[in-house]
Design goal:
Layout: H1 3-9, E1 14-15, E2 21-27, E3 30-35, E4 38-42, E5 48-52, E6 63-68, E7 73-77, E8 80-84, E9 90-94, H2 109-122, E10 129-132, E11 136-139, E12 143-146, E13 152-154, E14 159-164, E15 169-173, E16 177-180, E17 186-188, E18 198-202, E19 205-209, E20 214-217, E21 225-226, E22 231-235, E23 238-241, E24 246-250, E25 253-256, E26 268-274, E27 277-282, E28 287-290, E29 296-299, E30 309-314, E31 319-323, E32 326-330, E33 335-338, E34 353-358, E35 363-367, E36 370-374, E37 383-388, E38 397-403, E39 406-411, E40 416-419, E41 424-427, E42 438-443, E43 449-453, E44 458-461, E45 466-469, E46 480-486, E47 489-494, E48 497-502, E49 508-510, E50 519-525, E51 528-533, E52 536-541, H3 544-549
Antiparallel strand pairs: 1-52, 2-3, 3-4, 4-5, 6-7, 7-8, 8-9, 10-11, 11-12, 12-13, 14-15, 15-16, 16-17, 18-19, 19-20, 20-21, 22-23, 23-24, 24-25, 26-27, 27-28, 28-29, 30-31, 31-32, 32-33, 34-35, 35-36, 36-37, 38-39, 39-40, 40-41, 42-43, 43-44, 44-45, 46-47, 47-48, 48-49, 50-51, 51-52
Length: 551
């Protein structure tokens, strides 16, 4: 086994990317970055010392805002509000989904908690609140509400900043800066940098930060300073950015302090092994593999046709990355793009490649009109055959996977197709499946398959007959978004967690908590599996005894 494989097996149970930063706050002799991969803690000199994740008690890795009362740091996440003490121990505070926190000012911790409870009592539940002032609340939908009244306003872009004035309120959104007077009249305030915008309150006033790193004082017409591009928050000599992590200002300029070589992204859509390396595909940040030193090497456009990865497979020599704009192909040395309408030696029939998998005849590259089977290990790729889909089957293919002599395809409206080497066979709801909208698929060379559906559970095929599971005590949700066959059953990823299905007993066991409940990719390896979620990568055991004991 290669060193990279050993490193991957020794990974912490949760791995995230901390390059998207929403807030920064000094606390406990450190500086804490509020990121979409958890809380990253830095020394005053800029050294990253730890990342707090769900394993440390955070409700979610998606941190939105921080506020300190001196002895406690309050943290707003997508799944709840918590506080931390100076030792970074997490305590739940409120079950709210706010993306902002009111200013603590000089409030004690008990007084601040009372303020939060009073605010929650007057807010409409279920709304994504993104900014607060003593008299107003703004939302991600660009709505501004005056608390305690029925007055509201519509603004361009999500509300990022609020500051009460003597007769109204100043409002900053991702698209501009505005003022509202006592009569409710809305007016633009001066000029602003190129958006999307962020806003920071400093000792010198309010700073408006543009996406190119331009900083302008509120109401001013000229830029006053510059910061790293994509800045989202400024705090003294510290800057957080949208996709490059945290920077610290030094005598020679800005220095990135967020560690490099991170996982390429947190919203994981595909997992595979290539020459012993763990390979990860993401929803919008390309793909990466883990090197021998444990760091991640990322590949994005133009190495790949698109940064939205739909599937990954390896034939032992070559790596195939299916994306929405074609195939990314790595042949030991270089990346090559292939796509319908461009370089297309493998006869792809549509732009989006739904999947790539290793079958008996070769590597199957699937698009919405058929399958291109290519010679394994060939460079350049050699097309063996093109297999069209049955005429009139479906205009909306969704997922595909091949193994052995079988090739399976799922659709959004017509169930499943299976090619057995000679002919296509169809499987539908009622008789075979719980529903015809197939969102997840896993197959093996013995003829087994599991098909997950959009909102009706999953169906398991043992090679001869189907077992249908719409709901079960151990199934967190009937919305299935990933699946993987294992000996004696299957692993199922849903929008609310993962489960193990025991085909022998028909029982479904909920698995332990993962990096995020939305599980979009599963890669079994022995008694454990890697789970790609919307909030990072997790590794957990799936055996029934573990599943039951850790529920």
């Amino acid at each position: 086994m290669m060193l990279s494989a050993l490193t991957a097996l020794a990974l912490a149970a949760t791995v995230t990317n901390t390059e998207t930063v929403h807030d920064l706050a000094p606390f406990g002799g450190h500086v804490v970055a509020c990121t979409e991969g958890g809380l990253e803690v830095f020394t005053p000199a800029g050294r990253s010392v730890r990342v707090l994740t769900v394993e440390d008690g955070l409700p979610s890795h998606f941190c939105r805002a921080l506020e300190s009362t001196g002895d406690r740091l309050f943290v707003a996440t997508d799944e709840g509000l918590v506080s931390l003490d100076a030792g970074f121990q997490v305590t739940p505070v409120m079950d709210v989904r706010w993306q902002a926190l009111p200013a603590a000012e000089d409030a004690s911790t008990p007084d601040y908690v009372s303020r939060l409870e009073s605010l929650a009592a007057v807010l409409v539940p279920g709304t994504a609140y993104t900014a607060f002032s003593p008299r107003f609340a703004g939302t991600a939908e660009g709505r501004l509400f005056e608390l305690g009244t029925s007055r509201s306003w519509a603004l361009p872009g999500p509300v990022r900043f609020l500051s009460d004035t003597r007769d109204g309120v100043d409002v900053g959104t991702s698209e501009g800066a505005f003022s509202i007077d006592s009569r409710g009249r809305l007016a633009a305030v001066g000029s602003v940098p190129t958006g999307p915008l962020s806003f920071t309150v400093t000792e010198h006033g309010v700073s408006v930060v543009g996406s190119h790193g331009d900083v302008r004082a509120w109401g001013a017409s000229e830029d006053a300073a510059s910061v790293p591009a994509g800045a989202t928050v400024l705090n003294g000599d510290w800057v957080g950015t949208h996709a490059s992590g945290v920077f610290l200002r030094e005598a020679k300029g800005w220095r990135r302090v967020t560690p490099t070589g991170q996982l390429c992204g947190n919203h994981i859509t595909a997992l595979a092994r290539h020459k012993g390396r763990l390979v990860v595909g993401t929803f919008d940040r390309g793909a990466c593999w883990q090197r021998d030193d444990g760091r991640w090497q990322t590949f994005r456009t133009p190495s790949l046709p698109s940064n939205q990865v739909l599937g990954i497979t390896s034939d032992g020599q070559n790596l195939y990355v299916a994306t929405t704009y074609g195939l990314g192909f790595h042949d030991k040395k270089t990346w090559t793009q292939m796509a319908y309408g461009g370089r297309n030696p493998v006869a792809l029939g549509k732009l989006s490649v739904l999947g790539a998998s290793r079958a008996l005849d070769g590597v199957a590259l699937v698009d919405g009109r058929g399958v291109s089977v290519v010679t394994p290990g060939s460079a350049p790729l050699s097309l063996m055959k093109r297999l069209p889909l049955p005429e009139g089957w479906s205009e909306h293919p969704s997922v595909a996977e091949g193994s052995g002599r079988f090739l399976w395809m799922g659709s959004e409206d017509r169930g499943l197709l299976r090619w057995d080497g000679e002919r296509w066979q169809r499987f539908h709801d009622g008789r075979d499946l719980t529903d015809n909208w197939v969102t997840a698929l896993s197959t093996d060379a013995e003829g087994r398959a599991i098909a997950g559906t959009c909102q009706d559970g999953f169906s398991y095929f043992d090679g001869a007959k189907w077992a249908r599971v719409r709901t079960a005590a151990g199934l967190p949700s009937p919305a299935i978004v990933s699946a993987a066959l294992v000996p004696g059953g299957a692993l199922v990823g849903t929008l609310l967690g993962a489960s193990y299905f025991d085909a022998g007993t028909g029982a479904v066991h909920a698995l332990p908590r993962l990096a995020d409940p939305r599980v979009y990719a599963v890669l079994p390896e022995g008694d454990a599996a890697f789970f790609g979620t919307e909030g990072g990568l997790s590794r957990a055991e799936w055996k029934p005894t573990s599943a039951v004991s850790q529920r």
